[in-house]
């Protein structure tokens, strides 16, 4: 898919959708851009998740300007053949925010690392933040077996190029979605997973994103020690109450306090909140947009 030229959405009608590849930072990522009103809402999926997982949330945000990111390896872009680092992920997100400044990051799970780091490095680019059951790691943990996991990813990439083995990817995705949401194993799933997780690049990307988790968490702790969080940034933290029990809710509360935000606990939601309670994500996003609009009117 060719990269969209600058201004490709100029003059487009509200609701018009553009899919394109873009070089962000030093990497190529896939974008889905929907023309709409207000600050851009930049939706960033968690580890190994495609951008279409946000569809239920987008349906609750009619008329809004939406930008969805598929990191390298997803959305038809090539896997970079390495474990991703926090610096690379943040550069990609900053590149996207430079194209769509003054927006709101809506980040799920591990993507909360990238969103927080981008705000810390370039706070002038972002007007608000919504973390959806964001990863929270208060202490350093030693990365384990990174070289081995890279070898596993390369082997999985090779295997996924063979049709019988490629069929395993969608099966694993179905099991993962069932384990992390209220959906049942035999419930209808998004048909796009049949092609998404049969892709060799996507399979390798999922493995290396997971394998890079601890190092990225540690790098964020270091960045926190070196930077200040912008005062007054509207932040909403959504916590899935069924994701990890009381300890998880407490860790999320500490994250909200660290970022000066508000926490909303969803007692019946599992980790994939966008599938279980998408309207609550939309509501939190609208709350942030309301604060931004109020401040714009006062200035």
Automatic annotation (TrEMBL):
Annotated GO CC locations: membrane
GO molecular function, one term: hydrolase activity
Keyword field: Hydrolase
Database matches in InterPro entries: AB_hydrolase_1, AB_hydrolase_fold, AB_hydrolase_sf
SUPFAM superfamilies the record matches: alpha/beta-Hydrolases
Domain AB hydrolase-1, residue spans: 41-283
Entry keyword Methyltransferase: no
Protein name: AB hydrolase-1 domain-containing protein
């Amino acid at each position: 898919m060719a990269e969209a030229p600058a201004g490709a959405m100029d003059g487009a009608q509200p609701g018009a959708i553009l899919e394109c590849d873009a070089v962000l930072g030093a990497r190529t990522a896939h974008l889905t851009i929907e023309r709409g009103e207000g600050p851009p809402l930049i939706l960033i999926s968690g580890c190994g998740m495609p951008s279409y997982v946000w569809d239920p949330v987008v349906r609750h945000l009619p008329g809004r300007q939406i930008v969805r990111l598929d990191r390298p390896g997803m959305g038809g872009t090539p896997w970079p053949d390495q474990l991703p680092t926090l610096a690379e992920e943040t550069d990609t997100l900053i590149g996207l925010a430079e194209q769509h400044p003054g927006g709101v990051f809506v980040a799920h799970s591990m993507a909360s690392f990238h969103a927080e780091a981008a705000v810390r490095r370039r706070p002038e680019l972002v007007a608000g933040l919504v973390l959806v059951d964001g990863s929270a790691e208060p202490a350093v943990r030693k990365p384990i077996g990174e070289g081995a996991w890279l070898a596993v990813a390369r082997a999985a990439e090779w295997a996924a190029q063979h049709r019988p083995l490629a069929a395993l990817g969608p099966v694993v995705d179905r099991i993962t979605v069932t384990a992390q949401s209220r959906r049942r194993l035999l419930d209808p799933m998004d048909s796009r997973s049949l092609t998404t997780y049969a892709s060799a690049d996507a399979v390798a990307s999922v493995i290396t994103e997971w394998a890079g988790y601890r190092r990225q968490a540690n790098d964020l702790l270091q960045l926190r020690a070196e930077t200040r969080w912008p005062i007054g940034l509207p932040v909403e933290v959504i916590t899935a109450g069924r994701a990890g029990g009381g300890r998880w809710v407490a860790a999320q509360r500490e994250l909200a306090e660290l970022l000066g935000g508000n926490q909303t606990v969803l007692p019946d939601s599992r980790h994939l909140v966008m599938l279980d309670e998408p309207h609550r994500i939309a509501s939190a996003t609208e709350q942030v947009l309301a604060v931004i609009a109020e401040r714009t009117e006062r200035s």
